Protein backbone atom coordinates (compact mmCIF):
# COMPACT_ATOMS: atom_id res chain seq x y z
CA UNK A 1 0.00 0.00 0.00
CA UNK A 2 1.36 3.34 -0.98
CA UNK A 3 0.30 6.42 0.91
CA UNK A 4 -0.96 7.82 -2.40
CA UNK A 5 -3.21 4.78 -2.97
CA UNK A 6 -4.41 5.01 0.62
CA UNK A 7 -5.21 8.70 0.20
CA UNK A 8 -7.11 8.03 -3.03
CA UNK A 9 -9.18 5.40 -1.19
CA UNK A 10 -9.64 7.68 1.80
CA UNK A 11 -11.20 10.40 -0.37
CA UNK A 12 -13.47 7.86 -2.08
CA UNK A 13 -14.46 6.25 1.24
CA UNK A 14 -14.95 9.50 3.11
CA UNK A 15 -12.19 8.80 5.64
CA UNK A 16 -11.31 12.46 5.68
CA UNK A 17 -12.67 14.62 8.47
CA UNK A 18 -12.98 18.35 8.74
CA UNK A 19 -12.15 19.82 12.14
CA UNK A 20 -12.90 23.39 13.16
CA UNK A 21 -10.80 25.90 15.07
CA UNK A 22 -12.44 29.10 16.37
CA UNK A 23 -11.24 32.64 15.84
CA UNK A 24 -12.39 35.57 17.96
CA UNK A 25 -12.87 39.30 17.69
CA UNK A 26 -9.88 40.74 19.55
CA UNK A 27 -11.81 43.63 21.13
CA UNK A 28 -14.86 41.78 22.41
CA UNK A 29 -13.37 38.29 22.69
CA UNK A 30 -16.48 36.98 20.93
CA UNK A 31 -16.29 34.06 18.57
CA UNK A 32 -16.60 35.19 14.97
CA UNK A 33 -16.10 31.97 13.08
CA UNK A 34 -14.08 28.84 12.49
CA UNK A 35 -11.29 27.69 10.21
CA UNK A 36 -11.82 24.30 8.55
CA UNK A 37 -8.76 22.03 8.92
CA UNK A 38 -8.72 18.61 7.27
CA UNK A 39 -7.61 15.39 9.01
CA UNK A 40 -7.29 11.86 7.71
CA UNK A 41 -8.79 9.10 9.83
CA UNK A 42 -6.49 6.27 8.62
CA UNK A 43 -7.74 2.72 9.38
CA UNK A 44 -4.39 1.57 10.83
CA UNK A 45 -2.28 4.69 11.28
CA UNK A 46 -4.84 6.68 13.25
CA UNK A 47 -5.56 10.37 12.81
CA UNK A 48 -3.06 11.88 10.37
CA UNK A 49 -2.50 15.67 10.40
CA UNK A 50 -2.55 17.60 7.11
CA UNK A 51 1.16 18.43 7.09
CA UNK A 52 1.69 14.70 6.44
CA UNK A 53 -0.54 14.46 3.35
CA UNK A 54 -1.35 17.88 1.85
CA UNK A 55 1.98 17.99 -0.02
CA UNK A 56 1.36 14.48 -1.37
CA UNK A 57 -2.18 15.46 -2.34
CA UNK A 58 -0.77 18.47 -4.19
CA UNK A 59 1.87 16.43 -6.04
CA UNK A 60 -0.66 13.81 -7.15
CA UNK A 61 -3.52 16.16 -7.97
CA UNK A 62 -5.64 14.52 -5.26
CA UNK A 63 -5.87 17.97 -3.66
CA UNK A 64 -8.62 18.77 -6.18
CA UNK A 65 -11.17 16.18 -4.95
CA UNK A 66 -9.86 16.59 -1.39
CA UNK A 67 -10.33 20.35 -1.53
CA UNK A 68 -13.82 19.97 -2.93
CA UNK A 69 -14.71 17.55 -0.14
CA UNK A 70 -13.46 19.97 2.54
CA UNK A 71 -15.23 22.99 1.02
CA UNK A 72 -18.54 21.15 0.63
CA UNK A 73 -18.36 19.64 4.13
CA UNK A 74 -17.42 23.00 5.67
CA UNK A 75 -20.19 24.92 3.86
CA UNK A 76 -22.77 22.28 4.77
CA UNK A 77 -21.73 22.32 8.45
CA UNK A 78 -21.54 26.13 8.63
CA UNK A 79 -25.00 26.51 7.09
CA UNK A 80 -26.36 25.02 10.33
CA UNK A 81 -24.46 27.40 12.63
CA UNK A 82 -25.68 30.74 14.00
CA UNK A 83 -25.76 33.21 11.10
CA UNK A 84 -23.07 35.52 12.50
CA UNK A 85 -20.37 32.83 12.32
CA UNK A 86 -17.98 32.73 9.36
CA UNK A 87 -16.35 29.64 7.91
CA UNK A 88 -12.77 29.94 6.62
CA UNK A 89 -11.52 27.32 4.15
CA UNK A 90 -7.93 26.88 2.90
CA UNK A 91 -7.40 26.66 -0.86
CA UNK A 92 -4.24 25.12 -2.27
CA UNK A 93 -2.44 26.92 -5.13
CA UNK A 94 -2.87 23.68 -7.10
CA UNK A 95 -6.64 24.02 -6.94
CA UNK A 96 -6.26 27.37 -8.68
CA UNK A 97 -5.17 25.54 -11.80
CA UNK A 98 -8.63 24.02 -12.01
CA UNK A 99 -10.73 25.92 -14.51
CA UNK A 100 -13.82 24.71 -12.69
CA UNK A 101 -12.85 26.07 -9.28
CA UNK A 102 -15.16 29.07 -9.43
CA UNK A 103 -18.13 26.92 -10.50
CA UNK A 104 -17.30 24.39 -7.80
CA UNK A 105 -17.35 27.11 -5.12
CA UNK A 106 -20.69 28.43 -6.44
CA UNK A 107 -22.11 24.91 -6.40
CA UNK A 108 -20.89 24.24 -2.84
CA UNK A 109 -22.56 27.48 -1.71
CA UNK A 110 -25.79 26.79 -3.58
CA UNK A 111 -26.03 23.15 -2.44
CA UNK A 112 -25.39 24.04 1.21
CA UNK A 113 -27.51 27.20 1.22
CA UNK A 114 -24.63 29.07 2.88
CA UNK A 115 -24.66 32.79 1.99
CA UNK A 116 -21.38 33.69 0.17
CA UNK A 117 -20.79 36.46 2.74
CA UNK A 118 -20.19 33.81 5.39
CA UNK A 119 -17.43 32.06 3.43
CA UNK A 120 -13.83 33.16 3.71
CA UNK A 121 -11.22 31.67 1.40
CA UNK A 122 -7.65 31.49 2.73
CA UNK A 123 -4.86 31.53 0.22
CA UNK A 124 -1.11 31.76 0.57
CA UNK A 125 1.21 34.13 -1.23
CA UNK A 126 2.43 31.47 -3.66
CA UNK A 127 -0.89 31.83 -5.48
CA UNK A 128 -0.03 35.42 -6.33
CA UNK A 129 3.33 34.67 -7.89
CA UNK A 130 2.33 32.16 -10.53
CA UNK A 131 -0.41 33.01 -13.02
CA UNK A 132 -0.82 36.30 -11.20
CA UNK A 133 -3.26 37.93 -13.60
CA UNK A 134 -5.54 34.88 -13.98
CA UNK A 135 -5.62 34.44 -10.23
CA UNK A 136 -6.32 38.12 -9.78
CA UNK A 137 -9.34 37.84 -12.08
CA UNK A 138 -10.51 34.74 -10.21
CA UNK A 139 -10.26 36.57 -6.89
CA UNK A 140 -12.22 39.52 -8.25
CA UNK A 141 -15.01 37.13 -9.27
CA UNK A 142 -15.09 35.67 -5.76
CA UNK A 143 -15.28 39.16 -4.27
CA UNK A 144 -18.17 40.08 -6.56
CA UNK A 145 -19.93 36.96 -5.34
CA UNK A 146 -19.51 38.27 -1.77
CA UNK A 147 -16.89 35.78 -0.57
CA UNK A 148 -14.14 37.16 1.71
CA UNK A 149 -10.46 36.65 0.90
CA UNK A 150 -7.71 36.13 3.46
CA UNK A 151 -3.96 36.04 2.87
CA UNK A 152 -2.76 33.10 4.99
CA UNK A 153 0.61 32.52 6.70
CA UNK A 154 1.61 36.12 6.05
CA UNK A 155 5.30 36.78 6.56
CA UNK A 156 6.52 33.29 5.68
CA UNK A 157 6.46 33.55 1.89
CA UNK A 158 8.07 35.74 -0.71
CA UNK A 159 6.11 38.72 0.54
CA UNK A 160 6.58 41.55 -1.80
CA UNK A 161 4.32 44.20 -0.38
CA UNK A 162 3.18 45.10 -3.88
CA UNK A 163 1.18 41.85 -3.93
CA UNK A 164 -0.78 43.05 -0.97
CA UNK A 165 -1.89 46.20 -2.71
CA UNK A 166 -2.52 44.51 -6.06
CA UNK A 167 -4.85 41.76 -4.82
CA UNK A 168 -8.28 42.29 -3.27
CA UNK A 169 -7.72 40.78 0.20
CA UNK A 170 -10.05 41.55 3.08
CA UNK A 171 -7.80 40.10 5.74
CA UNK A 172 -4.18 39.28 6.51
CA UNK A 173 -3.43 36.31 8.76
CA UNK A 174 -0.08 36.81 10.50
CA UNK A 175 1.77 33.53 10.70
CA UNK A 176 2.10 31.99 14.14
CA UNK A 177 5.90 32.14 13.98
CA UNK A 178 5.61 35.89 14.67
CA UNK A 179 3.40 35.31 17.69
CA UNK A 180 5.89 32.93 19.36
CA UNK A 181 8.18 34.86 21.72
CA UNK A 182 6.08 37.96 21.15
CA UNK A 183 6.20 38.76 24.83
CA UNK A 184 10.01 38.41 24.98
CA UNK A 185 11.09 39.83 21.63
CA UNK A 186 10.57 43.53 20.86
CA UNK A 187 11.29 42.75 17.21
CA UNK A 188 8.15 40.64 16.87
CA UNK A 189 6.06 43.50 18.25
CA UNK A 190 7.61 45.88 15.73
CA UNK A 191 6.78 43.53 12.86
CA UNK A 192 3.20 43.01 13.97
CA UNK A 193 2.73 46.71 14.55
CA UNK A 194 3.91 47.46 11.00
CA UNK A 195 1.59 44.83 9.53
CA UNK A 196 -1.36 46.34 11.42
CA UNK A 197 -0.52 49.84 10.13
CA UNK A 198 -0.11 48.56 6.59
CA UNK A 199 -3.38 46.61 6.72
CA UNK A 200 -5.29 49.65 8.01
CA UNK A 201 -3.94 51.74 5.16
CA UNK A 202 -5.14 49.11 2.71
CA UNK A 203 -8.52 48.73 4.43
CA UNK A 204 -7.80 45.14 5.42
CA UNK A 205 -8.20 43.48 8.80
CA UNK A 206 -5.56 41.46 10.63
CA UNK A 207 -5.76 38.06 12.33
CA UNK A 208 -3.02 36.83 14.66
CA UNK A 209 -2.63 33.04 14.42
CA UNK A 210 -1.22 30.66 17.01
CA UNK A 211 -2.21 32.69 20.08
CA UNK A 212 -1.52 30.43 23.07
CA UNK A 213 -1.33 32.62 26.18
CA UNK A 214 -3.32 35.50 27.71
CA UNK A 215 -0.09 37.56 27.72
CA UNK A 216 0.26 37.15 23.95
CA UNK A 217 -3.39 38.05 23.47
CA UNK A 218 -3.05 41.22 25.59
CA UNK A 219 0.01 42.29 23.62
CA UNK A 220 -1.75 41.65 20.30
CA UNK A 221 -4.79 43.64 21.37
CA UNK A 222 -2.51 46.54 22.31
CA UNK A 223 -0.89 46.26 18.89
CA UNK A 224 -4.31 46.58 17.26
CA UNK A 225 -4.98 43.21 15.66
CA UNK A 226 -8.64 42.66 14.77
CA UNK A 227 -8.97 38.89 15.20
CA UNK A 228 -7.14 36.17 17.11
CA UNK A 229 -6.93 32.43 16.61
CA UNK A 230 -5.00 29.78 18.53
CA UNK A 231 -5.04 27.22 21.31
CA UNK A 232 -5.97 29.93 23.84
CA UNK A 233 -9.43 30.07 22.24
CA UNK A 234 -9.66 26.46 21.15
CA UNK A 235 -7.89 23.69 19.28
CA UNK A 236 -9.29 22.29 16.06
CA UNK A 237 -12.13 19.89 16.95
CA UNK A 238 -14.69 17.76 15.13
CA UNK A 239 -18.05 19.45 14.69
CA UNK A 240 -19.67 17.33 17.42
CA UNK A 241 -17.31 18.77 20.00
CA UNK A 242 -17.87 22.41 19.17
CA UNK A 243 -20.13 24.11 21.65
CA UNK A 244 -22.24 27.01 20.52
CA UNK A 245 -23.86 29.82 22.46
CA UNK A 246 -26.95 29.18 20.37
CA UNK A 247 -28.20 25.67 19.50
CA UNK A 248 -26.89 24.19 16.28
CA UNK A 249 -29.52 23.28 13.70
CA UNK A 250 -29.06 19.96 11.93
O1 LIG B 1 -4.49 21.44 10.87
P1 LIG B 1 -3.11 21.88 10.99
O2 LIG B 1 -3.09 22.91 12.01
O3 LIG B 1 -2.12 20.82 11.33
O4 LIG B 1 -2.77 22.41 9.50
C1 LIG B 1 -1.50 22.27 8.94
C2 LIG B 1 -1.48 22.87 7.55
O5 LIG B 1 -2.37 22.18 6.67
C3 LIG B 1 -1.87 24.32 7.52
O6 LIG B 1 -0.90 25.01 6.76
C4 LIG B 1 -3.18 24.34 6.82
O7 LIG B 1 -3.31 25.51 6.02
C5 LIG B 1 -3.13 23.11 5.94
N1 LIG B 1 -4.49 22.63 5.72
C6 LIG B 1 -5.35 22.17 6.64
N2 LIG B 1 -6.53 21.85 6.08
C7 LIG B 1 -6.41 22.13 4.75
C8 LIG B 1 -7.29 22.02 3.63
O8 LIG B 1 -8.45 21.64 3.72
N3 LIG B 1 -6.80 22.39 2.41
C9 LIG B 1 -5.52 22.84 2.25
N4 LIG B 1 -5.13 23.17 1.03
N5 LIG B 1 -4.67 22.97 3.28
C10 LIG B 1 -5.11 22.62 4.52
O1 LIG C 1 -3.71 27.23 7.48
P1 LIG C 1 -2.66 27.35 8.53
O2 LIG C 1 -1.28 27.14 8.09
O3 LIG C 1 -2.73 28.67 9.22
O4 LIG C 1 -3.06 26.26 9.63
C1 LIG C 1 -3.06 26.54 10.97
C2 LIG C 1 -2.13 25.58 11.66
O5 LIG C 1 -1.74 26.08 12.93
C3 LIG C 1 -2.77 24.24 11.94
O6 LIG C 1 -1.77 23.27 11.86
C4 LIG C 1 -3.22 24.40 13.41
O7 LIG C 1 -3.41 23.16 14.05
C5 LIG C 1 -2.06 25.17 13.96
N1 LIG C 1 -2.40 25.95 15.15
C6 LIG C 1 -3.56 26.58 15.40
N2 LIG C 1 -3.49 27.25 16.58
C7 LIG C 1 -2.25 27.01 17.07
C8 LIG C 1 -1.58 27.44 18.27
O8 LIG C 1 -2.10 28.17 19.10
N3 LIG C 1 -0.29 27.02 18.42
C9 LIG C 1 0.33 26.22 17.51
N4 LIG C 1 1.59 25.84 17.78
N5 LIG C 1 -0.27 25.80 16.38
C10 LIG C 1 -1.55 26.20 16.16
MN1 LIG D 1 -5.15 28.76 7.24
NA1 LIG E 1 -1.82 30.21 8.57
TrEMBL record:
<protein>
    <submittedName>
        <fullName>Diguanylate cyclase (GGDEF)-like protein</fullName>
    </submittedName>
</protein>
<feature type="domain" description="EAL">
    <location>
        <begin position="1"/>
        <end position="250"/>
    </location>
</feature>
Amino acid sequence: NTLEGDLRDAIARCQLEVHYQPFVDALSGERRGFEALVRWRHPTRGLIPPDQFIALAEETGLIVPLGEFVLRRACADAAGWPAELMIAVNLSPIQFKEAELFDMICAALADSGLPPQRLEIEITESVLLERGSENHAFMERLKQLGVELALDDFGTGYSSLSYLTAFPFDKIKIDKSFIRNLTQQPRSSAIISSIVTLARGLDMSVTAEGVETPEEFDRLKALGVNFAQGYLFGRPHPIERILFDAPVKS
